[in-house]
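During the reporting period the student researcher (J.K.) took over the structure-prediction task from the postdoctoral fellow and processed the backlog of single-chain submissions. One of the processed entries is reproduced below for the supervisory committee.
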Amino acid sequence: MPEDDVIIIKEGVKVYGKQTVLKGISLNIKKGEIFGLLGPSGAGKTTLVKQLVGLEAVSEGEVRVLNQKQPSLEVIEQIGYMAQSDALYTELSARENLEFFAALYSLSRKERRERIQAVMETVDLTEAMDKIVSQFSGGMKRRLSLAIAMLHEPQVLILDEPTVGMDPILRKSIWQNFEKLKQSGVTILVTTHVMDEAGKCDRLGMIRGGRLTAVGSPFELKKEAQTDDLEAAFLVYGGEEHAG
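J.K. obtained the following structure tokens:
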């Protein structure tokens, strides 16, 4: 395995009953790379993400993260994961949620205090620190979920549609933070169907019907599809060249 490959998927297949959700996915993601997984609802993005974080096992093939075969408890502790649905304790305050997860990650009291402040500044929620989460809007819950994913300074961040419900200014700020994390060597995989976010990724994997239809930088994918528009490129790789 090349040293800079943090995520490796070899011929990954996932079968539920008679339905094959992932069909021979092979992919390598490097250290310090922002990799975007782009595809419509039901394409298999979330299933693939769950395999990477160890919540789902492959039916066939292999998934390795940080050179460990998934699922692995040792690796799970080094991953920051943000699911599509927010896993928050809504009867607690934002601070209490963060304290709970900080304890799970065995952060010291000093580390907890510093990291909680840092991640809440990143998602612009410091003023809501002591607000009960049940009173949060959907966008605020997404922001808190993202803060929790970044809390323990993981080597790998796996984020399933992290900016849904956020305003454009905050989205821009969060992507700037992703760039900083990338510069420090953090590997980020993000699923999205927002084209301007897809354009900010170093590389993209376009997934449709459980298959990776294309992998490359936004520039490479647009060039190959002979278009200057990512959305049009996605239609080409989805076999819909003549759509519209």
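The committee noted the following: The radius of gyration is 18 Å.
J.K. will present the remaining backlog at the next meeting.
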